[in-house]
Amino acid sequence: MPAVVVHRVVPTPVDRVWATLTDFADYGRWIPMTRMTVDPPPTRVGWGFDGRTGVGPAGFVDSMLVTWWQPPRRGDAARFAVRKTGRVLAGWADVVLTPRSDGGTNVVWREEIVLRPEPFGRLVAPLVDPVVARLFGAAVGRMLAAAAR
C-alpha cells in the first residue's frame, strides 16, 4: 500500500495531542474490535506494543516497535515512528506534530500497511488500500477529537 497521509490542523495544544496519540494502551478505543498490550513504561526507541484485532479466536496481532521518539519540547515539533513487526502486517507509521502560533497543532500522520507475505500484499493492495485508508482516517479523526476534549 502506498503511504496513507492524514493531515489535520487542530485547535488543541501539541502536548495534549501528543498525550492522546502516544497512549498506545488506549488505541483499542479508536480501532474497532482491537485490544492492546503494551511493554512496561517508559516509552522509548525499542519499546513495543501489540494490537489484537478480531472477534473470539478469529483475528490477528499487529505488533509494532517504536523506532523514533521525540516528545514535544519548548515549541519544537514532536515525532514518533513505529515499524510493524507482526506476522500478518508489515509497514510503518511516522507521526509529526508541529505547534502552531495560534496554540493549535499541525498533525501529519503517514502510515504504510502491507499484508504479509509482502509480494502478495502488494498484489492485492489496489483492492484493500481504499478501505484501509477510510478506516484509518476515521480512527485518527476520533483520536484527535478526543484530544480536543
Task: Please provide a written account of the structure.
By secondary structure, the chain is of the alpha+beta class. It contains 2 helices and 7 strands, in the order E-H-E-E-E-E-E-E-H. It has a 7-stranded antiparallel sheet. The protein starts with a strand and ends with a helix. The mean pLDDT is 92.
SSE arrangement:
Blueprint: E1 4-10, H1 14-21, E2 34-38, E3 48-55, E4 58-70, E5 78-85, E6 89-99, E7 105-115, H2 118-148
Antiparallel strand pairs: 1-7, 2-3, 3-4, 4-5, 5-6, 6-7
What gap, in angstroms, lies between the N and C termini? 33 Å
- In sequence order, what are the helices and strands, one letter per element? EHEEEEEEH
Q: What is the structural class?
A: alpha+beta
> How much is the average pLDDT?
92
Computed Rg: 15 Å
Shape: globular
The total beta strand count reads 7
Biggest sheet: strand arrangement: 1-7-6-5-4-3-2
Helix content: 25-40%
Low-confidence stretches: none
For the report, how would you describe the main beta sheet?
A: 7 strands, antiparallel
Strand-residue proportion? 35-45%
Instruction: Give the helix tally.
Output: 2
Features:
single chain, 149 residues, alpha+beta, seven-stranded antiparallel sheet, globular
